[in-house]
Amino acid sequence: MKKIGVFLCNCFGEIGRTVDLESIRKRLASDPSVGFVALRESLCMPGDAAEVRATLRERGVGKVLLGACSPYGRMETVRLGLAKEGVDVRTVRAADLREGCAWIHGKNPAGATRKAANQLDMELARLQNGQDSMDIDIRVRSEALVIGAGPAGLAAACGLAGMGIPVHLVDRGSAPGGLLNVVTKVYPTEVSGPEKIKSLVEMTGSSPLIRFYGKTKVASVKGYAGDFKVALAGPEGNTSLRAGAVVLATGARLLFPRGLYGYGKMKNVITQMEMERQFAAGNVACGNAVFIQCVGARCAERPYCSTICCPLSLKNAMRILDEAPGSTVTILHRDIMTPGSTLEAYYRKALHRGVRFVRFDAQRPPEIRGNGLVSGVEVFDVLSGVTRSIEADLLVLSTPLVADPESAALARMLEIPVDRHGFIAEVYPVHPVETRNDGVFICGTARWPASSDQAIAQGEAAAVKAASFLGKETVPALTMSRVPGTKLGHAEANAEACTGCGNCVAVCPYRACKLQRVGQRSVSRVIKVRCKACGSCMSVCPNGAMQIPEQNYRVTGAMIRRAFREVR
User: Fold this and answer.
1) Structure pTM?
2) Which residues on neighbouring strands pair with residue 254, listed in sequence order?
3) What is the mean pLDDT of the chain?
């Protein structure tokens, strides 16, 4: 059996100033399973991967152990570099010596060193006792499905088409554009909504690689990354198609604040989007206009900031002053959210134009007065400490974006979670357009409230991610991992030991376990392309029939024994 090569990274002192790497080197060098131990200043810099590969060839080792940073740090870069140099990354394990040892135990060098040694010991045990999962190649269909034709979906579709990938673009509306079709001006450039996305809409209509399905919904999605089988329901009946990747750009909807500040009962109480429709109709005779921010947002039910409300109010306030001379606009707010230099300048422009701002306390919200029509608003000004009485001919409520129920339905079809507010959840903040399901990407307000510029940027990012996947004829299933570098492999079912109890089917969060009939009994079968090696099936199998080769009971026992071995 070939021995294991070990590389210990100093990370330019980030590890070595706390962890005694030399003592660890000496200890590992005495292990009969270790062929050599090399101390390196870095493993992720240009040229490091080639040097590591050269050392491996020279020493002739079979497997590799890296003592470096966490999988959330630079290990993805290290593994990609090694893969490009021809190293089989399935034979490479890593122990977290930086975030998990040196950084968190910076005031306890002895403890950090002891923990680092234990971590390396356990990974050695895993390499010694584990087996490699049988990999399979997934054939990738080079077509994409983009659901939603708002700014994010249009950007994703055009980005994919620009890279030569056929796109099926589906939207429940009759024309692409989404909410921007009814927005007369978009902050901060103040061009119209249709003008904002004109080039994207034109490319959608002219590109031979983009097929648009209007007034259409996704009825079902089956299959997996590389080959999703999709059923559409449209005006011409049901349509079936197949796609290698899916981009969710279903958007969000604005909250209708029924029961708040007289909305739905008083004729002169409207939302910001209804104000947009009045602009489009040329009806901007406002007089004294009062805006109230955070209506239905930043509360117990929806504690988040929708991000678009403040810039939208600034834009509409200045629009009133432009088109209805003599009008006044007062914005009642808890605080004005205008991050970045561009939006800050936009806010100062509104101040200069004469828009008045009054800050109120969430515990003392504004109170309206009037009968049938709002005639005024009473509000306690927290900055001056006095209660102000403001005349109002029009009350405009700024409401948040909320998750679209269609997004939750699609998430269930695609087996990806939504967050507690109903928005589609990203897999990790550092992978903002990726989901838990391989081959499925998210962008725009389906993910979280975003401006049109942010939605377009996310759509472009999703297109790049999807194209990097679709650009391959086949993809090894083992490479599809949610946390780079931590993929174990796939669970495997021992048909002889399986009694067909179905526990694995019940607990698998990825629907990777199925019961199938073999002769006179049912046994479990693992759909490897779906399996993420979470270990749920192993934990509930009463017969030990479910195993992950890289992390079976033998491996776990060996790791525990080494972890509790005294560190000298």
Assistant:
1) 0.79
2) 401
3) 91
